[in-house]
Amino acid sequence: MAEAGKLPYPVGYAKPPSNTQFKLGQSGNPSGRPKGAKNFGTAIEDALRARVTVTENGKRRRLSMRQVIAKRLVNRAADGDLRAVPLLLNEARAHENLSSGGGADEIFGGAEEQEVIDAIVQRIRRASPVPEPNPDPLSDPETDKPEAPE
Q1: Angstrom distance (rounded) from CA 83 to CA 85
Q2: What is the tally of structural domains in the chain?
Q3: Is residue 24 assigned to a domain?
Q4: Residue 13 within any structural domain of the chain
Q5: Is residue 69 in some structural domain?
Q6: Which residues pair with residue 62 across a beta bridge?
Q7: What are the pLDDT digits (tens) for 13-65?
Q8: What pLDDT was estimated at residue 31?
């Protein structure tokens, strides 16, 4: 240990010597991740956006890598590759769910079935009575009954 007379405070647990502490404005990890470094997801997005030259029907075209992968997947599924068919159908289904704004209308038949749905909702609401709210939430209806005279 260092002598107590040379340091302005005692050195010990959670009190390192001042010469080993980080200096103001100096990073604790100077060789760490540089600014602007891309993570794995960003690198994949950049690779999928990259444009490549392909020959299609005898003509050269520049397509994004994403388009090339999509075309190859569709062609492999059309050729009968049994591993490509479920991939293609899952992606197509996910894209349909995102692009269709109908939501519940498509599931329940749209405007034609609205009368039936309204009738079902009304029947459910009539079958389950709504309890009356307790005016004093702190009181217990069982214990607040008036006492019988003796």
Answers
A1: 6
A2: 1
A3: no
A4: no
A5: yes
A6: 53
A7: 988 888 888 888 877 788 887 888 888 999 999 999 999 999 988 999 999 99
A8: 84
- Cα separation, 1 vs 7, in Å, equals 11
Q: CA-CA distance, 45 to 102, in Å (whole number)?
A: 29
pLDDT of residue 132: 63
What is the rounded distance in angstroms from the CA atom of residue 60 to the CA atom of residue 52?
10
The residue type at 16 = P
Domain span at 50: 45-98
Whether residue 52 contacts residue 68, with contact meaning beta carbons closer than 8 Å, is answered with yes
Please give the Cα distance from 74 to 80 (Å, whole number). 10
pLDDT of 7 above 80:
no
Instruction: Give a yes or no: residue 72 inside a domain.
Output: yes
Say what the pTM is. Answer: 0.45
Contact 110, 100 (CB under 8 A): no
* CB distance 63 to 52 below 8 Å: yes
Give exposure, 104-130, as e/b (b: 16+ Cβ within 10 Å): eeeeeeeeeeeeeeeeeeeeeeeeeee
Of 85 and 128, the one with more pLDDT: 85
